[in-house]
Write a structure and sequence with these properties.
This is Phosphonate metabolism protein PhnM. The chain has 397 residues and is α/β, with parallel strands linked by helices. It has 14 helices and 16 strands. It is globular, with a radius of gyration of 21 Å.
């Protein structure tokens, strides 16, 4: 896959100040194919040396045998929306929300994030969604340019195809925005994520306080929107992703037919397929499978869909996303390490695999010449304890 990012745009996404020099020694370095006792050196924000052995130079940080691994790469998180709307219909000031979101992710070991922002609004019926994506993206890009962030931020546009204004909203974005990912969303009741209407009713009733009558009206409106806009908006969103130079992702594929359509659309990775059938079809078509860390930690999907652990056991899991719990990402990798008895493979699901899927070639592994985004982690029982986070060699948590 060709990267949608030029060298200049990648440099512009680096927000924190670089450290002049950092050496972590006496560490268990989690390399792509093995774990090695050694030292890692970062100079001017880039990994310059990896050496084997317990001893390092004077002034090095003695990690005392802790793991050192690449910074985590997050492709799909709802966390920024949680910060700008901490409770239903509570609009929090965006810049403080973005800064708090950035700091929270840094504190969990995420050093690269694609901030998911919904495009496609619903102005009719119950469960209205207002247009916020362009304004929030402007604020995020301005904060990034001003060096306000600890970690690296990119744009991920969640294209809600069953909405009234999707194509108009997508048209406000251009190549200069460096949109990294466009994902195709269809949350129509009775299919994909919400095949079980009971699960959907529980979700929206708690989030929006809907009565039975409100819920029935909401479902009828969404079905009508899909009938009127779904097909047209899907075609349009695929074209817009191409115009923007973004990686295209599918969302909640459920059947082999869904995946076949995703393949024809040029989808690079599949977010949260809901069945083994869909995950297997993704594998057959060469589409990377991404599942949610909360699903893995909880032992199942909150919507009643396929368990991430089942896909991991069937060798149908490539990428993990924190989804709605940032701290779950690191924990999920160590859970997979236990499941697979393979720490490097597990760490790859949250580092090199998402980097590759997003077209980023300058991060995601402990390798000379790559960004100095690294974590220091001590394992306590089956729980990873984060003891240090560096972004381009600068300590951010």
């Amino acid at each position: 896959m060709n990267s949608p990012f030029s060298a200049a745009s990648l440099a512009a996404a680096c927000d924190n100040d670089m450290s002049d020099n950092l050496c972590l020694t006496n560490a268990q370095l989690v390399l792509p194919d093995r774990v090695m006792t050694g030292s890692l050196t970062i100079e001017a924000g880039v990994i310059t040396e990896l050496t084997e052995g317990p001893d390092g130079p004077d002034g090095a940080v003695d990690c005392g045998g802790d793991y050192v691994l690449p910074g985590l790469v997050e492709l799909h998180t709802d966390n920024v929306e949680r910060h700008i709307e901490p409770r239903p219909d509570v609009d929090w000031p965006h810049l403080p929300a973005l800064i708090a979101h950035d700091a929270e992710l840094a504190s969990t070991g995420i050093t690269t994030v694609f901030d998911a922002m919904r495009v496609g609004s619903i102005h009719s019926g119950k469960g209205r969604y207002i247009d916020y994506g362009r304004k929030l993206a402007d604020e995020m890009l301005a904060a990034r340019a001003a060096g306000m962030f600890k970690i690296s931020h990119f744009l991920h546009l969640r294209a809600e195809i069953c909405s009234e204004t999707l194509l108009d909203e997508l048209a406000t974005f251009g190549p200069d925005d460096r949109v990294g990912i466009v994902s195709l969303m269809d949350h129509t009741p009775g299919q994909r994520q919400f095949r079980d209407l009971t699960a959907l009713k529980t979700y929206v009733s708690k989030k929006r306080g809907m009565s039975d009558a409100d819920f029935a009206e909401h479902v009828a409106n969404l079905l009508d929107l899909q009938k009127r806009y779904g097909a047209k908006h899907e075609v349009g969103a695929v074209a817009e992703a191409g115009r923007l130079g973004a990686v295209l992702a599918s969302h909640d594929d459920t059947t082999a037919e869904h995946v076949a359509t995703s393949h024809r659309n040029g989808v690079g990775f599949a977010e949260f397929p809901t069945t083994v059938e869909a995950a297997q079809a993704c594998r057959d078509h060469g589409i990377a499978v991404m599942m949610g860390a909360p699903n893995l930690i909880r032992g199942g999907s909150h919507s009643g869909n396929v368990a991430a652990e089942d896909l991991a056991r069937a060798d149908l899991l490539d990428i993990v996303s924190s989804d709605y719990v940032p701290s779950a990402l690191l924990l999920s990798a160590f859970r997979l390490a236990d499941l697979w008895s393979d720490l490097p493979r597990a760490i790859a699901t949250v580092t090199s695999a998402p980097s590759k899927a997003a077209g980023l070639t300058d991060r995601g592994a402990l390798s000379t010449g790559l960004r100095g985004d690294v974590l220091r982690v001590r394992q306590i029982g089956d729980t990873p304890l984060l003891r240090g986070v560096w972004s381009r060699g600068a300590k951010v948590a």
